[in-house]
Design brief:
The protein has 197 residues and is α+β, with helices and mostly antiparallel strands. The chain is built from 6 helices and 4 strands; from the N terminus they run βααααβββαα. A two-stranded parallel ribbon has the order 1-4. α3 crosses α4. The termini are far apart.
Length: 197
């Protein structure tokens, strides 16, 4: 089985390797150990073609060698995906960057969310390697606004409430620091949300 639950792909060349449809198919199939020969039977593709793609995935560190078996004059290499799931660093996909900290800028929300994906994925991999659990918190809620002013009022009230709670837990030496990020975007599920101008 793959050792890591998730792995962050933060190299552009490795991301291109992983994004090819055939290689995505191979990574999915290699959640369980397999060789070019066994995958050729499962996927109904030539073993030589799969061998080429498997070597490229192995060189990129996306699959790893489990064992080598002697088979009728050749060595069968059994591989497994390096992780159950791969996450591509949002920065590689042209993630938005903003200089200003405009709390209502969609670009800033996208950049902050991308940074969170990157950081949490890396920290979870490190925690799993150390046999530890990464302690995180997720709060989600669905809300509705009739007028643009309702959105402004909500933002103000939420900011004040968070500032009050956060002030009770200041950062300092000897404390384990946490980064809190709250974001809101129009709901993608159900009826299409009307943009607030």
């Amino acid at each position: 089985m793959a050792t890591d639950r998730t792995a962050l792909i933060d190299d552009a060349d490795h991301a291109l390797l992983a994004l090819s449809p055939l290689r995505r198919q191979l990574l999915n199939a290699l959640r369980e150990p397999g060789s070019a020969a066994s995958l050729a039977k499962r996927l109904d593709l030539p073993r030589q073609k799969l061998g080429y793609h498997l070597r490229a995935l192995e060189a990129a560190g996306l699959v790893k060698l489990v064992e080598e078996k002697q088979r009728r004059g050749f060595v069968e290499r059994v591989l497994v995906a390096a992780a159950e799931d791969f996450i591509i660093d949002p920065d590689l996909l042209g993630g938005a960057r903003t200089e200003a900290q405009d709390r209502h800028a969609a670009d800033h929300l996208a950049a902050a969310a991308g940074a969170m994906v990157r950081e949490v994925t890396r920290m979870r991999s490190a925690a799993e390697a150390a046999g530890q659990r990464l302690l995180t918190l997720t709060i989600e809620a669905d809300i509705g606004f009739e007028r643009p002013q309702d959105f402004e009022d909500f933002s103000q009230a939420l900011g004040e409430a968070i500032a009050s709670v956060v002030s009770r837990y200041p950062q300092g030496s000897g404390k384990r620091g946490y980064h809190l990020m709250l974001g809101a975007h129009p709901s993608a599920a159900g009826t299409k949300a009307k943009p607030i101008n």
